[in-house]
Design brief:
- This protein is an alpha/beta fold.
- Helices cover about 45% and strands about 10% of the residues.
- It is built from 23 helices and 16 strands.
- The strands form four sheets. It has a six-stranded mixed beta sheet with strand order 2-3-16-13-11-12. It has a five-stranded parallel beta sheet with strand order 7-6-8-9-10, sandwiched between helices. The protein has a three-stranded mixed beta sheet with strand order 1-4-5.
- The protein is globular.
- The chain binds 6-O-phosphono-beta-D-fructofuranose.
- The site of 6-O-phosphono-beta-D-fructofuranose has 14 residues, from loops.
Length: about 575
């Protein structure tokens, strides 16, 4: 047994390190282009391609040389990356502003590892597996039909109500693993169990999501780490009212408390608040304050996934996370993919001055992956103060964004290819499709992948004046048709989008985020930046409701906007 909480060393200003200075000089001295580097070194692709679990990661189309990588790894060592990684994995309170351990990696430790992980006197492994066992049992009872709605009908739809980390992870994974959804056991239903998600406090979200649902076959999971989030609690009340009214409208006679108990369960760290809402705490699944919301899809927050996809699929997902955790914890830095990709992002942001980072999955099933990564990366690293309270003097968190290919190609890739900005991009693709359709003789997945290969090639190598002119183009059209190349990208491939591979991908980006946060000296695990808006929204409620004194107390712009709202709000 180990008891592991320990003091967190002060952040090291990365710009004061020898490696940072060396990187600056290296950048000034760097000459050549991707075309030249590939021509000069036939081994470049092999040298800069790495395996992590099932992921095959080609970094060779980035604006780096072997020396860049060496210097970036020097920087990682100088800022104490390995020590901080080990401290996180051991349960040190590296989330200093909230005095918490950061242990999402404990959520995917298999049962029975010796020594058990004991943090703050608590056997974390035992706690995690107790909840996992309850989630599994609950999922099985819904899937087998043992758990029914208040009228005895099987559950067919699970509505997850949550926002931020209590929504984005479950939605993204559900969409990604839809081919794994089934009807559960002993069901003669043709359709698989369905998951739906309500997150926005815009009442249209709850309305649109519930309007065609049968209340008798609907189960609601209220997912909120704090169980105080305005959006989630408001939506939970709206859906409770909808469900009870809809049952009544169907002429069902029922006891309200029993109906809520049969149709509502909760996932939260605040089990007392769950009971206040009217959900029986025995139908609540807990987690811990050492799991950040954006790192929680592999906690009980994934209950909706265990129900709809099945607990075995959920556990395969966790095993995938674990594969990447082990790689991150043990692979030498020079082969450690999360470290290499995180340090590459440092290079792109702090030396090449990239402001954004595109994530481009060539998989329609991953269409919510960029949105998921936005919270993971930007809520984690969108900060300008280091964990000792000092201000940073360098750029931090880049803007993550993206859409699946090939859709993005017909929308924003123009700017990636010929715009004035440098936009590093991660291309993600899978060798075997979930749906291998053919168009006559054509394997459509091969058409799709041809686009995947073409885009990173075009970005890297461009099209020269000579190449454009050789096609017969002349005059002013020539520059318009030229592509500069040297636009950096990383290609990530895997055999197929399985639950395990998805877990590996998510954990990869979690650890990349950690690596960047560590170099920048920031606490990637708090999110004070979302608080002010929440406070102001509550304080503005009287003004929005028409209190003239409260309106007059606002700044002129806000007061006028509220007056516009009040003048134009139509009511029945
Ligand atoms: O407001 C931001 C945030 O706290 C996220 O970090 C979190 O994922 C989300 O709100 C939802 O919080 P909760 O799960 O407590 O409802």
């Amino acid at each position: 047994m180990t008891d592991t909480a320990s003091a967190v060393p002060a952040p090291i200003d990365p710009t004061e390190t020898a490696a940072w200075r060396a990187l600056d000089q290296h950048q000034d001295a760097l000459t050549g282009s991707l075309r030249e580097w590939f021509e000069a070194d036939p081994q470049r692709a092999a040298t800069l391609t790495h395996e992590a679990g099932d992921l095959h990661v080609d970094l060779s189309k980035n604006l780096i040389t072997a020396e860049t990588v060496d210097l970036l790894l020097d920087l990682a060592r100088e800022v104490g990356l390995e020590e901080r990684r080990d401290a996180m994995l051991a349960g040190a309170h590296i989330n200093t502003s909230e005095d918490r351990a950061v242990l999402h990696t404990a959520l995917r430790r298999p049962a029975g590892i010796e020594p058990a992980l004991v943090v703050d006197g608590q056997d974390v492994d035992a706690d995690v597996h107790e909840v996992l066992g309850r989630v599994r049992a609950f999922a099985q009872s819904v899937r087998s039909g043992a758990w029914t709605g208040v009228t005895g009908k099987r559950i067919e739809t699970v509505v997850n109500i949550g926002i931020g980390g209590s929504d984005l992870g479950p939605v993204m994974v559900y969409e990604a693993l839809k081919p794994y959804a089934d009807a559960g056991s002993g069901s003669d239903a043709a359709a698989p169990l369905e998951a739906r998600f309500i997150s926005n406090i815009d009442p249209t979200d709850a309305y649109e999501t519930t309007k065609d649902l049968d209340p008798e076959t609907t189960l609601v999971i209220v997912a909120s780490k704090t169980f105080t989030t305005l959006e989630t609690i408001t939506n939970a009340r709206l859906v409770r009212t909808w469900l009870l009214d809809a049952l009544r409208a169907q002429g069902v006679e029922f006891d309200e408390a029993e109906a809520v108990a049969k149709h509502f369960v909760a996932v939260s760290t605040a089990l007392d608040k769950v009971a206040d809402f009217g959900i029986d705490p025995k139908n609540a699944f807990g987690f811990w304050n050492w799991v950040g919301g954006r790192y929680s899809v592999d906690s009980a927050i994934g209950t909706v996934l265990a129900v709809v996809l099945g607990p075995d699929v959920f556990e395969e997902l966790l095993a995938g996370f674990r594969t990447m955790d082990e790689h991150f914890a043990t692979a030498p830095l020079a082969e450690n993919v999360p470290v290499l990709m995180g340090m590459l992002n440092i290079w792109n942001v702090n030396f090449l001055e990239a402001e954004t980072h595109a994530v481009l999955p060539y998989s329609q099933y991953l269409h919510r992956f960029p949105a998921y990564l936005q919270q993971l990366t930007m809520e984690s690293n969108g900060k300008s103060v280091r964990w000792d309270g000092s201000l940073v003097s360098y750029d931090t968190g880049e803007v993550f964004w993206g859409e699946p290919g090939t859709n993005g190609q017909h929308a924003f890739y123009q700017l990636l290819h010929q715009g004035t900005r440098i936009i590093p991009a991660d291309f993600i693709a899978f060798a075997t499709p979930a749906r291998p359709l053919r168009d006559g003789e054509q394997d459509v997945h091969e058409l799709f992948l041809a686009n995947f290969f073409a885009q990173s090639k075009a970005l890297a190598f461009g099209k020269t004046r000579e190449e454009v002119e050789a096609e017969g183009t002349t005059g002013a059209l020539v520059p318009a048709r030229m592509f500069s190349g040297d636009r950096p990208s990383t290609s990530i491939m895997a055999p197929a989008l399985t639950p395990s591979v998805l877990g590996q991908l998510i954990a990869l980006y979690e650890h990349i985020t950690f690596v960047q946060g560590t170099v920048w000296g920031i606490n990637s695990f708090d999110q004070w930046g979302v608080e002010l808006g929440k406070q102001l929204a509550s304080a503005l409620a009287p003004a929005v409701a028409g209190d003239e004194a409260a309106i007059a107390a606002q700044d002129a712009s806000t007061a006028e906007l509220i007056r516009y709202y009040r003048a134009h709000r139509a009511r029945d």
